[in-house]
């Protein structure tokens, strides 16, 4: 198994798909849907040709949201969303994923990354090992991961009400 990272910055590529190609849905997509920051149609259009998958990292992040909900209504809504995510295949966090994570984390530090983004790098490692692409609202979070296929979903433009308009 060759898991060497190149020293050049990765570019964002739109994944090519087949019905069997996994698409790992980043946590921010699920949150964006909940907050109506992204359109369901945009997500469905991006996901349609792929096999939608998740990871233990995404499940953990979503469970934090359930546990920290400020009301019973929000907690129940998030729990139901988590139940939907749990119906998708969960990518295994294997030894190979752990080793790939170590290579990626070292690579981004060597490139001068200063912010901690451990979970993003674990997602990238799982995607690379499982030959999956990632769907995210923040493609730049993955731009420095060589070989990773990333597809972005743009936020919905919010209409700003002008004073005195109805």
Key features of this structure:
166 residues; alpha/beta; Rossmann fold; five-stranded parallel β-sheet; 6 helices; 5 strands; 10% strand
CATH class: Alpha Beta
**Fourth CATH level, the homologous superfamily:** 5'-nuclease
- Total individual domains: 1
> Distance between termini?
62 Å
Low-confidence stretches: 1-13
**What does the radius of gyration come to?**
17 Å
| Number of helical elements | 6
Q: What is the CATH topology?
A: Rossmann fold
Task: Give an overview of the whole structure.
The protein has one domain: 5'-nuclease (Rossmann fold, 3-Layer(aba) Sandwich). Helix 3 runs antiparallel to helix 4 and helix 5 (about 95-110) packs across helix 6. The chain has helices spanning about 25-35, 40-45, 55-65, 70-85, 95-110, 120-130; strands at about 20-25, 50-55, 90, 135, 150. The protein contains six helices and five strands. With about 170 residues, the protein is an alpha/beta fold. The termini are far apart. The longest helix has 16 residues, at about 95-110. A five-stranded parallel sheet has the order 3-2-1-4-5.
